[in-house]
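Exam prep: given the inputs below (a chain plus glycyl-adenosine-5'-phosphate), describe the expected output before reading on.
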Amino acid sequence: MPATPELDPDLLDKVINLAKRRGFVFQSAEIYGGFRSTYDYGPLGVNLLRNVKQAWWRSMVQNRVDIVGIDAAILGPPAVWAASGHLETFTDPLVDCLKCKERWREDKIDGVCPNCGSTQFTEPRAFNLMFKTQAGPVEGEGSTAYLRPETAQGIFTNFANVLSSVRKKPPFGIAQVGKSFRNEITPQNFVFRTREFEQMEMEYFVPPSDAEEWYRYWIATRLAWYVDLGIPATMLQLHEHAQADLSHYSKGTTDIEFLFPWGFDELEGIANRGDYDLTQHATHSGVALDYFDQSSSERYTPYVIEPAAGATRAMMAFLLAAYHEDVVEGETRSVLRLDWRLAPYQVAVLPLSKKPELEGVSTEVLGQLQPHFMCDYDVTQSIGRRYRRQDEVGTPYCVTVDFETLNDAAVTVRDRDTTEQVRVPIDGLLAHLRSVTGQI
Ligand code: GAP
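Solution:
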């Protein structure tokens, strides 16, 4: 087996620093001192996060005939969360440090208070992670609502709607990307664990006898997705949960773990949820949530295989895996070797100078590329400095318009990773970029 790579001990700090400095991730409400554990995505981060979600949607929905999408509400009534088991069991063990009074998640602190070092705590008590709120102007029991702690339940409650409206039959899946909220006791490690985050979940409904086979299929398929998008296989591992550690709904769970700076940790979970969710919602709502197979004249409740990923956590993993430092022309540069499908900017158009004749051609080149690639346009500073700035945010291709362009109607295309430069005619530029990105 190939060795696990050695990580730069300062990797996390370097990536957090880069993320703030270059507009990927900002502390939320920073001008008011910051709101702990919430983050805002800046101009580059929003592109990267969107590309992660788009790559997921492409592989899970667009490129398949057996999976459809949905976008369900974030606010939900208590009945949904009573049926799903979240009201009862979606809890973490909370303890108070008897010395400094800080509150901690017991299973994350190894018996020592991270604040004051004390080993004296209260008995753990179950703390429900759901955010509770009021819906409507009248306060009271009847108006209680919850922010969803996972996107999955909106899929189960729409199972019958989807089945009747798009006429799918098992095996088929329903995918959803969106925000989830958990009142985490100890949010930590940048965007790894936050109280507001984005998930990418898919519930795959299968005949019960095929569940194990599909469970294995989705573990392999999801692992391959991360590798295809550039995470080295040596930074990923599978962790199958022991029976005793399974969630209340699960018949089997395997995590895809990524080598974060603090060690391997969960990136995505793939669970065999059995018929737990559909049965629970059918019982609580009184609406049948099963499937009649006409070919065998059998009625059954499908089992569910669920690949559940965090979009914001995946974005962090892609950033960490992409961060490199190397030496170019005697100068150390930091470079994000992001796959071009994820890069916030895929192409940067750089006129060599601010002279109007160069800017004119450059604007035309930009207009040619913008419908096909997310582009940046930069005229400030020396060309060398501009290359470094693009390398640092992961732009795979820089297109330089120079004075020669006015004679030969060609531009220089520079590759981020090799730093090699080739001269390409402007009228063949789009085809060239499509070819080097493997689109044609
Ligand atoms: N529907 C099943 C489910 O939600 P989960 O393991 O609790 O399973 C799935 O969550 C994924 O969502 C995790 O693997 C992680 O990537 C992401 N996730 C969960 N809690 C998170 C948090 N507080 N902050 C960021 N991402 C989180």
